[in-house]
Every structure is written in C-alpha cells, then in structure tokens.
Amino acid sequence: MNNILGTITAIDTDGNLSLVDITVSEDIRMSALIVETPEHCPWLKAGKKAKVLFKETEVSIARNLSGQISLRNRFMATITRIRSEGMLAEITLASAEHEVVSIITSRSAQRMELKTGDQVEWLVKANEVSLTGN
Amino acid sequence: MIEIAVSKRLHTAEGPMDLLFNGIIGKGEFITLFGPSGAGKTTLLRMVAGLTLPDAGAIVVNGQAWFDSTRRINLSPRQRSIGMVFQDYALFPNLTVAENIGIALPKEKRSTIVSELLEVAGLQELAGRKPDKLSGGQRQRVALARALALKPAILLLDEPLSALDLQMRLKLQDELLYLHQRYQPTTLLVSHDLSEVFRLSRRVFVLDRGEVTRSGSPTEVFSQSKISNKFRFNGEVVHIKPSGVVYIVHVLVGQDVVQVIASEQERASLTVGKRVLIASKAFNPLIMTLEE
Questions:
Q1: B271 touches chain A (CB under 8 A)
Q2: Nearest CB partner across the interface for A88, out of B245, B283, B284
Q3: Which residue does chain A place closest to B266, by CA atoms?
Q4: Which of B221, B245, B265 represents a domain boundary (last residue)?
Q5: Within an 8 Å CB–CB cutoff, is residue B283 touching chain A?
Q6: Are residues B175 and B142 in the same domain?
Q7: Are residues B248 and B208 in the same domain?
Q8: Is the pTM of this model over 0.90?
Q9: For the segment B57-107, what is each residue's pLDDT rounded down to a tens digit?
C-alpha cells in the first residue's frame, strides 16, 4: 500500500460523495474520490492532515504520455528499483521526496523497456485513492 | 438478565489489584471478556460460578440473587444454574462420552437429553468411547455438551478453544455458535484471541489490571481506524502464499475466506492468525444478483 501524508486543501461534496484535493508536496497535488462527507467525518476538513492510501496494483506507469486523459493524478518520477518475478514486476519510484511503488505486469515492464534511472509518469485514478485521518 | 456489580482485591505478583466489574448482560447474550492474562477475567468468571467470593457487591440472575454482600447471600456453585468449560477438558476419564454428558442429569431425563446432545454436537459415533480415545477437539465438544446438559442460565467458557490448532478452533467456534443459537444460554467467554471475540460475541468487555477499559461491539472496540473506505471488513489471516513479487493473503471474513494481494512491504507485518482490516474503494466491487 502506498501511504503518503498530505494536507487537505479543497473538498467538493455532492450528496454522499466528496472529491478531495490533498497537497502532498509542492509538485504533488492528489485527488481522491470518496464516499464520505465533511459533515460526517471529523477529519475531512480543509487544512487537516490526511494520509493518502492507494494500492500498488492501481498505479499505472507511462512514458511520453500524450493526448488527453481523464486522470488528474499523474506525476513525474524516476525509477529507483525494478523487481520482476514471473508475471508481475514491482517498480519503485522516487516522486518529489516520496517513494511510490507500482506493480504492473512484467510483460508491460519489458515492452516499455523500463530500467532504473528512467524518467516516467505514474498515474492513479481518483476513485482508487483512499484517505485516512491522521 | 444478569446484573453483575462486584469488587475484589486481588494479590498479584505486581502487588494488590482491585478487580471491579459492573455490567448488565441480556438474556441469551454472548459476551466476551478480553484482556491480557492477569487482568482478572478468570476471577470474574469464578465469582459468577461461586468458586471465588467477591469482597463486595451483588450478582443477580433473572431476578434471583446468587450473591449479595449486604444481604449475606451466597449460593453455592451447585445452587447456581451454570455450565462451565475450561481449557483443560476435565472429563471423567473412566466414563464414556455419553456418561460424561449425562453425569449431572436426573435418571428419568438422562437418555433423552444425552441422545439429543450427542446428535446436536455430532458425537453419536463417539458415544461409547472413553476420553483418552478422543482428540482435543472432540473432548472440548463433549465438555461443551456436558455444560449444556442441564440447560444452564449461564454458560461460562474460560478459553475453551485455546489449546486447539487453528483449524479445529475455527470448527469449534462454528459449533459453539450453532449450539448457542439453538439453546441460547447467556454466555460469558474469556478469551485473549481477538478473532474469537469477533467471530463469537456481539459485545466485548476489555479488562486491564482489574478494570473494564472499553466495552461495546468488537468492531466499535477494536476498529478505531479512521479510514474513509465504506467497503471494509475485519478478518483474520489464515494463509499467506508467495506469488512472484506479491503475496496472496487468505483472510477469513465471517464464514468466508477472501483473497487479497499484498506487496512485499504489506506482507512484512502479516502473520497467520493476525487480525486485519481489509478495505477497498466502494467504487471497485462488482455487484450482481444471485440466482434464487
């Protein structure tokens, strides 16, 4: 599980859903779509600290990504480690001062010729991002 | 309904400790007393059974005082409608399974009740065996059947399953649930196994150094996670299987085993038997109707 501490900067609520913006560092502002509202959740307030949680297997990796994409959670990173065994590969990334891990298929890692030191982008859908009060 | 309000000074290795317990337990409820050893759980059970005398207070069961220090009432264990099961089986070695179950029953009712219990507890095949020819799990099943034979108002269970291996423990937990549903004795279980608390009881009292520090449903008491996920469950790790760079973790949730992928880093904190919270986003699960 990727676990990054950030500060909630904005909350947009519609019914029981909230789209929450969290600033993790200057370059990383993440969005999380959650089934929760500030009304019912004491820590879901702008200015409060929250941990951003997302599964390694939900993190996609892209290189030279062009065209339009609906995802807003996309950030530059450098590959620091690749561990590939059988069907899956674990790609460790340094993104700003944070470490993010992605698990993708070994097939994709090979197709993209990923190697340590490469500049890539990592992406995660807002509805795959969980939050927990700090 | 059981009303317990008792106190007793205990002399422990770390000096004197005051055991205080105040609680009302509904008829047919399944309660656990959870906490580290030396917290006073077993002493409390023994006070309900009449085996240990409280310093002060009262124990009132369905309106009848079993103990009342101000009125100088103290029923003997035999006068209290209780069934007990402990960790060590305490069966009579020279009696058969059927005789063990029927030992306390009046002659005229004995055969009817014993055959019913043998059937309900799945012990028919073993009725004629002596305890030394039984496995640990079978012995505890006999002890449980014996404890239920007199249809006690209160069933007292002091870590009855802790000597059994995981698989047998899970099986007996299911049987215990079934027996509880069928006979509905008000049940007090002493346990320090968190998964047992979750699987068996609706309400838990956490004891520490003689005091109730928390009480409520197991989820209220133990799941203090602030995670936002609405799709989440408490479970117990039953198996961990490596698969390349990830692990497939089997988690027992209620009666079902689900599988969760864990990374190397997640795996590091997991061991078989560990209680875990598993959570997913409410956006992920597929939902479809079942054939009726």
A1: no
A2: B245
A3: A1
A4: B221
A5: yes
A6: yes
A7: no
A8: no
A9: 999 999 999 999 999 999 999 999 999 998 876 899 999 999 999 998 988
- Nearest Cα of chain A lies from the Cα of B264 at a distance, in angstroms, of 9
Kindly report the CATH number assigned to the domain that includes residue B245.
2.40.50.100
Is the alpha carbon torsion for A33, A35, A40, A43 positive or negative? negative
In CATH, the number for domain A2-133 is 2.40.50.100
Angle at A59 between CA A56 and CA A34, to 5 degrees: 90
Taking only the tens place, the pLDDT of each residue in B203-219 is 999 999 999 999 998 87
- In a shared domain, residues B80 and B34: yes
Q: Classify residue B107 by its DSSP letter.
A: H
Distances in Å between the Cα of B96 and the Cα atoms of B1, B119, B121 are 35, 15, 15
A-to-B residue pairs, Cβ atoms closer than 8 angstroms: 61
ipTM for the complex? 0.84
Quick one: B242 and B112 in the same domain? Answer: no
**B213/B145 same-domain check:** yes
Cross-strand partners of B240: B249
Mutate to test the interface with A, among B223, B228, B261 (most CBs of A within 10 A): B228
With contact defined as beta carbons under 8 Å apart, do B200 and B176 qualify?
A: yes
Candidates B226, B230, B264; nearest CB to A43 = B226
Is the dihedral angle over the CA atoms B195, B200, B206, B209 positive or is it negative? negative
Q: Which residue has the tokens 């960790």?
A: B87
Q: Does one domain contain both B212 and B244?
A: no
Q: Please indicate, yes or no, if residue B130 is contained in any of the structural domains.
A: yes
Asked whether the beta carbons of residue A36 and residue B245 sit closer than 8 angstroms, the reply is no
Q: What is the pLDDT of residues B19-54, one digit of tens each?
A: 999 999 999 999 999 988 889 999 999 999 999 999
Candidates B226, B246, B283; nearest CB to A127: B283
Smallest CA–CA distance from A40 into chain B, residue: B228
Domain range spanning residue B197?
Answer: 2-221
